[in-house]
User: What shape does this take?
Amino acid sequence: MRFLLRTSYGQDIRLFPFGGAPALWTGLALWAAIVGGLNVASLPLVREGWLALAAGYALVFGLVLSRWGGAAFWYGLLGVAVIVAPMLVGTYFVGQLTFVFVYAIAGVGLVILLGLAGQISLGHAAFFACGAYVAAILNAEGWDILVSLPAAVLVSAVLGVVIGLPALRMTGIYLGFATYAFAFIVEEILARWDSVTNGTLGIAVGSPVLGYESWGWQAVLETEVELYFLALALFVGTLVVGLNVQRSPTGRAMMAIRDSETAAASMGVNLAVTKTTAFALSAAMAGLAGALYGHVLHFISPEQFTILLSINLLVMMIVGGLGAMHGAVFGAVFLVMMPQAISALKGAMPPAEGLPEVLAFLVSLPSAPGFEAGIYGLIIILFIIFEPMGLHGLWLKVKTWFRLFPLYKKGMFKRQKSYMASERNR
Amino acid sequence: MERVFAALWRLLVAAALLGFVAPPVLAALGLVSGADLVNYLQQVVSGAALGCVYALVALGIVLIYKATETINFAQGELMMLGAFLCFTFVAILGLPFWAGALLGIGACAVLGMATDRIVVRPVVGQPAFAIVMVTLGFGFVARSLASVIPGWGTDTHTIVTPFANQIVALGPVVISQDHAAIIVATALLCGLLYLFFTHTKLGLAMQAASQNQLAAYYMGIPVKTVFTMIWGVSAGVAAIAGLMLAPIAFVHTQMGMIIFKAFPAAVLGGFGSIPGAIVGGLVIGIVEALAGFYLPEGFKDVAAYVVLLVVLLLKPEGIFGHVRKKKV
Assistant: This one.
């Protein structure tokens, strides 16, 4: 966590000239621009008009990167890679990448809530579900994404404020429990409110639509590639918002709260407002991710949004690393790749017949029903014990090792332990 | 504002107590028929029995939290393992019930100590979130392991208790002996734990460590060992809870999910208060049973969480909690 801010305040202002409060406006403007570009690309004339889209992206990336200094080249390369990726790989892989972006959007929200503000939420599935259902229902009513996605984001954010309200009165673990109680109730409502959500049967979600027939133009984003670019666009927008928040006074206030509420309050940080902001932002991003998730999967039902999803999202952050936005992406890649890796492992196992009993048992392990969860658990334990900053921390270590080459010291990333941090005897 | 919340809280407690004792009074006045009263009492008793199980799981969580500031998300899995161990000794190895149960409880306690030593100890001193996740991870692993152990697997099993299929009649209210045994055993266990914490050297050491780790260490208490012991006690309590749950639910790998009811119980009572955990468990169990009987379908599952949210909002530190906020 100590590596969170490697820049001074002056540098921050240079990197993110948009400041704190306007961060949201920046994000919205960027989002509108990107969706606008997507819209042009989706018109029947230039339906597969890659160039227009790529140019739009290059512009956005360029704008952001022009202020980034040394890392600009590598991030630029990454930007080019994600733009050309759909041309190079098959549709299946494009779909997987789309899910990476979807989870990464939620991840950015979790970095803000957990990493910056230090608030635990075991209820993110509720926001995710809320976004998915709002977007799906508006889509079914014939609204386009320019309406349905902001609505999904807004409703989730309002829900986030509602969940954040208890945060005004409670701290730490109590808050975590309040969020998960809330998530259970939301899940139950989704399962019981038949007239709107079709209960446990779930609803089919249409493809995202842009424009209206009555306007004379309408584009249905139905191919894998179009969804990919939609998710990418929204992810970049979310990331910009997230980075801005992180550097802004609001983000710094969140970090102050994370490190010591008492100290933060003494410095004039409004605990209630800051915590609620963190919840609202995080919920909004989870809602956006949920909306996309529904559109990509084309089907949603309450059982996709149980406590297990909340826990999966937390696992994602543990593996990715909470210290920086990179963690959200690393974690999302992990979350998407993990089931693939496990099924590959299952396929790679030789048949059990004819082997000695012990070996046969070991070979049959990956096909056991609880195997996947067990592997997740093991990964969590190992990461927390050996690499609490996650994959991002690992990457930082590697980078530092090379930068300092012969001078790297082992204790450089040693964690500080704190005892007696009791919530009861303060 | 605080005053309004406090007043609302007192109002809520008064209303809840009034609602709870109203049916017998109304029945005595002849306003409610006898059959309705019996139904009501029946629900209260079976709710209390399930509530006792919640309470014991919550008690395990609270014991560990109070002493070590660790929130153990694997308590449900410890309970599951405890139940499976008892099942192994009683049903698979064919030992007499009481011997098998004792062995199972002991084995589970050892398992709890091992968990502390291997999984939790390396993370002590890290932020609370890290510890929550590490116990969560351990829970996943435990569930997964239980499902591949030969003889355990993903099937449901039963432990036949000496009380199976018998009933106790208290006037017109009929209680199955399993339910009665749960309530009696919980009461006994609470008494035992009370004596343990107030009259034995180890119990006093545990109390000291939970109040102030550093001071306890300076007074010559081996804090780390004491923490391991607490994990053992807590896992033993979990095994008892599992053993009691076995006759009314089944023994299976998903039974650890009960933790999502035990947490509201623990929080309700004020996380870190032992009587609070018991009261919280009883409240959750009874509210759930009554909601299941009198309210439309669906309310039973969320009743615990609605109660939790309301209590947290009005009295964030729980019924018996001691969280003091620093004034800035």
